[in-house]
Design goal:
By secondary structure, the chain is mainly alpha-helical. It contains three helices and two strands. Helix content is 37%, strand content 4%. The mean pLDDT is 89.
Length: 95
């Protein structure tokens, strides 16, 4: 796949990035080099290779999936000027 200046300008416009003609020409070459590397990676046979989360084999640390209230309600409202039953109290505003 090859990228031309029009594609670079279109992507820049979509990303809301101001790109002049000189920068667009430079970016065209850089993006073509990157895409060439990705195409080179596609040539590698990865059949039978399991996805990895690390370069060394290890078991993922997992916590028990349980629904809790967090146990921090008292800490959360500790600095509030007015609270009631772990809720923030705010003055009533009617305009």
């Amino acid at each position: 796949m090859s990228v031309d200046i029009a594609t670079v300008k279109r992507v820049a416009r979509l990303a809301r990035i101001a790109v002049d003609d000189e920068d667009a020409e430079r970016m065209t070459g850089e993006l073509n080099v990157i895409l060439g590397f990705v195409e080179q990676l596609n040539e590698v046979d990865v059949t039978g290779v399991e996805p990895m989360t690390s370069v060394t084999p290890m078991a993922m640390k997992k916590r028990q999936d349980a629904v809790t209230d967090g146990g921090k309600a008292d800490d959360i409202v500790a600095n509030a000027p007015a609270t009631a039953e772990n809720f923030f109290l705010v003055p009533k505003v009617v305009e």
